[in-house]
Design goal:
11 strands; 9 helices; D-Maltodextrin-Binding Protein, domain 2; WH_DNA-bd_sf; DNA binding; DNA-binding transcription factor activity; alpha/beta
Length: about 300
């Protein structure tokens, strides 16, 4: 049995006239009658009552018509779903991001644009430190990650592309003498106590802070660790020390805290896209198109 047999049967059942059914199907009447006969023989039941005056469905034909219509509809739906999947219009897209990204206009605007253009795609967002995103990409638990790095971390088994640089800000208590300055330098923080992320958190910022301090001639004195940037800001407000965080976080307004630009070269943290190497799947290509339309960047090449 082939799908065309079902289509032939449905048209004959709707017309109850072999001549009109043949015209709808753009075939001759004798081959159509032969196909219906062959279908009945295969099923072992009569689907139509035939006479010189009329054609009518049998009880078996009435039941078979319901199933045939449902099967044909499901086949068409499956074909349409496959075509939409090939265009990246259905499925699940898993996106990782670091905690500072929601404080920018990029992620909220991008998600809004993508959901408007691809409403049938299930978008799964996961906040993760950069190192954990790398692991999730390797294990195929993520499709793309927005990661933080300083240009030195370049996993050989992943594709990493810089799309933006955010300056680092010195987060300092408002009562500190440096807080009155318009900007600060790392060498002025030689005697300060630093608040950073835990060593195993999976962020590259700790390495960047240490390298900047070493370049300024001292080893940073770590007095407190906190996994959340907002917690670090709160600890600065409490007078426990200073912190270095990406500039988008300066929108966190907290009494007793100031954010100062740093004059040191290299005092920035890059925002990058991390993906697996190889051809870009349709779902991801649509997401990258939306990103491209939101930011002025070098064109993102979609490899077929």
């Amino acid at each position: 049995m082939e799908l065309r047999h079902l289509r032939y049967f449905v048209v004959v059942a709707e017309e109850l006239n072999f001549t009109r059914a043949a015209e709808r199907l753009h075939i001759a009447q004798p081959p159509l009658s032969q196909q219906i006969r062959a279908l009945e023989e295969q099923l072992g039941v009569a689907l139509f009552e035939r006479s010189k005056r009329r054609v009518a469905l049998t009880d078996a034909g009435e039941r078979y018509l319901q199933h045939a219509r449902r099967i044909l509809a499901e086949v068409e739906q499956a074909a349409d779903d496959a075509r939409r999947a090939a265009r990246g219009e259905v499925g699940e897209l898993r996106v990782g991001f670091t905690s500072s990204l929601p404080f920018t206009s990029l992620l909220p605007g991008l998600i809004s644009d993508y959901r408007r253009h691809y409403p049938q795609v299930q978008l799964t967002l996961r906040e993760m430190f950069t190192a954990l995103q790398f692991e999730a990409l390797r294990a195929e638990r993520l499709d793309i990650g927005f990661v933080r790095f300083h240009g030195k971390e370049n996993p050989p088994d992943l594709q990493l592309r810089e799309i933006h640089r955010d300056p680092l800000r010195l987060v300092i208590n408002a009562s500190h003498p440096l807080a009155a300055q318009a900007h600060a330098s790392l060498e002025q923080l030689r005697d300060e106590s630093f608040i950073i992320y835990p060593a195993g958190a999976g962020t590259g910022l700790n390495v960047q802070v240490r390298q900047l301090c070493l370049a300024a001639g001292f080893e940073p004195r770590i007095v407190q660790e906190a996994r959340e940037a907002t917690t670090q800001i709160g600890l600065v407000a409490a007078g426990l020390g200073v912190a270095l965080l990406p500039s988008p976080l300066e929108c966190v307004k907290m009494p007793g805290v100031r954010y100062l630009p740093l004059s040191d070269e290299g005092a920035y943290l890059s925002l990058g896209l991390a993906t697996r190497p190889g051809p870009v799947p349709p779902l991801l290509a649509g997401f990258l198109d939306c990103l491209q339309n939101r930011k002025e960047m070098a064109p993102i090449k979609h490899r077929p």
